[in-house]
Amino acid sequence: MKRFFKPIEKEGSAKKPSLSPSKQGGEKGEEDIKKEPLKFVTWNANSLLLRVKNNWPQFSDFISNLDPDIIAIQEVRMPAAGPKGAPKNPRELKDDTSSSREEKQILLRALSSPPFENYHVWWSLADSKYAGTALLVKKCLQPVKVSFSLDKTVSKHEPDGRVILAEFETVRILNTYAPNNGWKEEENSFQRRRKWDKRLLDFVVQSSDKPLIWCGDLNVSHEDIDVTHPEFFSAAKMNGYVPPNKEDWGQPGFTLAERKRFGAILKECVISSDTPYFFGFNQPFICVEHKLKLMIMESLS
């Protein structure tokens, strides 16, 4: 947490950024308190249905205690609505078979129980039990717009449901599940990841009119501190295979090429990454623009 929560020098007499407009005379009414989100959770569930069946009491307690405004979930792994062979609706859970109806009911019951009944849920789902994202926003907060692609088109969803973008009056919340870089150039995974990173860079460049809070499993470990054994992950191989480009060597998510591209994105939108340190390989992030740091830090104090 040190990389995010570090002292920031004040520049001149500029006022601290505020996401909520205050009333004249500095008075704040109840309706002003929850204009925009201030507290965030990001979680790779690795199958939300399994988490509901096996870990829901613990997660419910965690959410009750933290009381976040936004819960960004990746790897939902629930299929989109629509019968086999027909176009799918990635905003809705599949329920056209007895098993899918049962799974949907299990999930919706969990999300209608405390504390989750206080949240509105948006889905972006893949055609099968793969990838997918969900965004839970407190009902007292109303996004101006929710879209599901990096080009901000409401009706279009990214392949595999990898993006949910919620726009508020003064801030954007981006939830992404980045595609894995993979191990081999010839499997097209390198190309897919390069294209994803280029589109994200274009997105942040074109979204400079509002501050950005970027949550998700970004499938990259940007700095050495994000892994426990940097030298080991830098030299990792799959069955002895070595990519032709040296910058693609190593564990997917920790290759030099991915780390450089991620650094370029952070630099372009002037954001800092906040990620807890744990044993192994660390890839979940919440990235926040510098101008929002003080405001968010104050909300947590």
TrEMBL record:
Keyword DNA repair: yes
Low complexity bias (residue ranges): 79-88
One Pfam family from the record: Exo_endo_phos
Transition state stabilizer, annotated site positions: N219
Single GO MF descriptor: hydrolase activity
Cofactor note: Probably binds two magnesium or manganese ions per subunit.
Keyword Amino-acid biosynthesis: no
Spans annotated as Disordered: 1-35, 79-100
Annotated Basic and acidic residues bias: 1-14, 25-35, 89-100
Cofactor(s) named in the record: Mg(2+); Mn(2+)
Endonuclease/exonuclease/phosphatase domain residues: 41-237
Positions contributing to Mg(2+) binding: N44, E75, D217, N219
UniProt KW keywords: DNA damage, DNA repair, Hydrolase, Magnesium, Manganese, Metal-binding
GO biological process: DNA repair
Recorded family membership: Belongs to the DNA repair enzymes AP/ExoA family.
Classification via NCBIfam families: xth
Protein name: DNAse I-like superfamily protein isoform 3
Lineage, top ranks: Eukaryota, Viridiplantae, Streptophyta, Embryophyta, Tracheophyta
